[in-house]
Design brief:
Blueprint: E1 9-12, H1 14-17, H2 37-45, E2 50-53, E3 57-59, E4 66-72, H3 79-91, E5 95-100, E6 104-105, H4 110-118, E7 147-148, E8 151-156, H5 162-179, E9 183-186, H6 194-207, E10 212-215, E11 233-234, H7 237-248, H8 253-264, E12 273-275, H9 284-287, H10 294-303, E13 307-311, H11 343-357, H12 360-363, E14 366-371, E15 375-380, E16 383-388, E17 394-399, E18 403-406, E19 412-414, E20 419-424, E21 428-434
Parallel strand pairs: 1-2, 1-13, 2-5, 5-9, 9-10, 10-11, 12-13
Antiparallel strand pairs: 3-4, 6-8, 7-8, 14-15, 15-16, 16-21, 17-20, 18-19, 18-21
Helix pairs in contact: 5-6, 7-8, 10-11
């Protein structure tokens, strides 16, 4: 089977984690990427076997306004630094996925610079969408153009242009040959050209065995992007919302409905990218009204269908709130030697180990067993998961045969007359593993 079918991801926003300046002066490289090498063993120790890290390439600010797709951002280091970093990840059994920012470029990208200089005569004028030389913008370019999200800092690429398509296919080939990466997370995939994504999927099948494509998609029918012709997976924002709001509202029906709907869409075997926070949304510890719900939230993250992902620092239960329209507090500088293990990190480590050991959590069919607003039980193959969001102990009565061991709190339970009767403490959960011969 492909490596990504059993992946547990760790997510790093490197400009934030390394404490890089928010603006790039394009000066001499500063080897901050090397300071992340100690994190590699940490990633392995908490049970993750894949790393999504990005953006990494030369840009002017937050990293998604790319200046040079084939040069590591000088605030992070050099191409050689990234090559060494990926090699050490691989030596530790960790696959590496980078950001592919192919929907737009920054204004310092060579094609846009040429457009500014030569205007109507630029050979790159058709690299961008709806360039209008009768218009203008806040930069006083003397022309206007399509952008992403209303930000003229992010210039919308014309992915229907064969030259643009070939440039980025060659860029991916370069990244694989130069850095030996294992996949891409496509930024703003929900507005990428579908034919362009099909070209990327064709390339993925050629460039490296089991090369993985995951797209950033927030709303919509995920099977439009995740299918056999385009991407292997997309970000599961539907489940992300359900995981925290179902606990804040004491409504497990929201999660169960989300899983059923995604299965009905044919996504059962595509393994969406599951997360409870990332570099664009507030930390799960901040979003939860009851911090004790960190436990059942993460049990569900690791046991529901899909690929679990941990955003750097959230394994320690750190805060992160959007403030004054800024994402800076979501992307903090951290030092591994200053982080203290706690109940959150111990839980995440245990869940990572269980996920590695129990293949049913990667391959087992999902079956709903019991559902109320505050209690939720389901099976993944022969493994039974029970979670409780209430402030009182809860009792479960689910169909099962044989004896089971509690993987989180210990203890054993045996079925009687085809039913398993177990209890779960307040704001907690258990993963029941069958005693196999």
């Amino acid at each position: 089977m492909s490596w990504y079918n059993e992946a547990v991801f760790y997510h790093i926003y490197p400009l934030g984690l390394t404490g890089a300046p928010m603006q790039n002066d394009y000066g001499e490289p500063v080897h901050r990427l090397n300071t992340l090498i100690p994190w590699i063993s940490h990633i392995r120790e908490i049970g993750c076997n894949a790393l999504y890290i990005g953006p990494l390439f030369q840009s002017v600010g937050h990293g998604y306004e790319t200046t040079d797709y084939r040069l590591v951002d000088n605030r992070l280091g050099t191409n050689e630094d990234l090559k060494i970093f990926v090699r050490i990840c691989h030596e530790n059994g960790i696959r590496v996925v980078l950001d592919g920012v192919f929907n737009h470029t920054g204004r310092d990208f060579f094609a846009f610079r040429d457009l500014q200089t030569y205007r109507e005569n630029s050979r790159f004028r058709d690299w961008y969408c709806n360039v209008n030389f009768w218009g203008n913008n806040e930069y006083n370019d003397g022309f206007s153009y399509d952008n992403w999200g209303g930000y003229n800092l992010l210039v919308k690429l014309n992915q229907s242009n064969p030259e643009v398509r070939d440039y980025f296919l060659d860029t991916v080939r370069f990244w694989v040959s130069e850095f030996d990466i294992d996949g891409l997370r496509l930024d703003a995939a929900d507005v990428l050209n579908f034919d362009f994504m099909k070209s990327l999927r064709w390339l993925a099948d050629q460039v490296k065995e089991d090369f993985w494509l995951m797209g950033e998609v927030i709303h919509g029918e995920y099977h439009r992007w995740a299918n056999e012709n385009t991407l292997h997976s997309v970000t599961n924002y539907h489940l992300h919302k359900a995981l925290y709001s179902a606990h804040n509202d004491h409504n497990y029906f929201e999660i169960a409905h989300t899983i059923k709907r995604q299965n009905d869409m044919g996504l059962r075997d595509l393994r969406l990218y599951n997360f409870v926070d990332n570099h664009d949304v507030e930390r799960i510890w901040t979003k939860l009204n009851n911090k004790a719900h960190y436990v059942p939230v993460h049990i569900l993250l690791y046991t529901l269908p899909g690929l679990p992902s941990i955003y750097y620092g959230s394994e320690y239960g750190i805060e992160g709130r959007k403030e004054y329209g800024s994402d800076a507090s979501l992307r903090p500088e951290l030092h591994l030697d200053e982080m203290q293990n706690n109940e959150c990190s111990e839980l995440v480590t245990t869940l990572g180990r269980i996920h590695q050991e129990e293949k049913a959590l990667a391959y087992g069919d999902y079956r709903e067993l019991q559902l109320t607003t505050t209690q939720y039980a389901f099976a993944r193959g022969d493994v039974i998961i029970c979670v409780n969001n209430s402030d009182e102990e809860a009792y479960f009565d689910v169909p099962a045969e044989g004896e089971y061991n509690g993987a989180l709190r210990g203890g054993t339970a045996a079925s009687e007359y085809g039913r398993l009767h177990v209890s779960v403490p307040a704001c907690s959960g258990e993963i029941w593993i069958p005693c196999r011969q």
